[in-house]
Write a structure and sequence with these properties.
One of its GO terms (molecular function) is metal ion binding. Keywords: Antiviral defense, Endonuclease, Hydrolase, Magnesium, Metal-binding, Nuclease. Belongs to the CRISPR-associated endoribonuclease Cas2 protein family. The chain is of the alpha+beta class. It has helices spanning about 15-30, 45-55, and strands spanning about 5-10, 30-35, 35-40, 65-70. It has a domain at about 5-70: 2-Layer Sandwich (Alpha-Beta Plaits), CATH 3.30.70.240. The chain contains two helices and four strands.
């Protein structure tokens, strides 16, 4: 089984139609997050697919997308009612 690494995905999209498409695509992979920042566990293949699909959706002149891999050795701090991010036992992308 491929190793899934923890990422944060965030975007700033100018047009509402592209924003909705970016949200839908990102949420297909997300395990948590808020508004335009999402917690995602990805294999290398899923990461490549997400980046390729997002490149097709966004306008590079107006929009921005950042996919940041977090160091697995780092401690995650949560505030309030937040829950620690966790890679589920099974995951459906779609």
């Amino acid at each position: 089984m491929a190793q899934r690494l923890f990422h944060l995905a965030c975007y700033d999209v100018a047009k509402p139609r592209r924003l909705k498409a970016a949200l839908k695509l990102t949420r297909a992979y997300a395990t948590g997050g808020q508004k335009s920042v999402h917690e995602i566990f990805l294999t290398a293949e899923e990461r490549a697919a997400l980046l390729a699909d997002m490149a097709l959706l966004l306008d590079p002149e107006e929009d921005r997308f950042l996919l940041l891999r977090l160091d697995p050795r780092s401690h995650v701090y949560t505030l309030g009612k937040a829950m620690q991010p966790a890679d589920p036992d099974y995951f459906y992308v779609g």
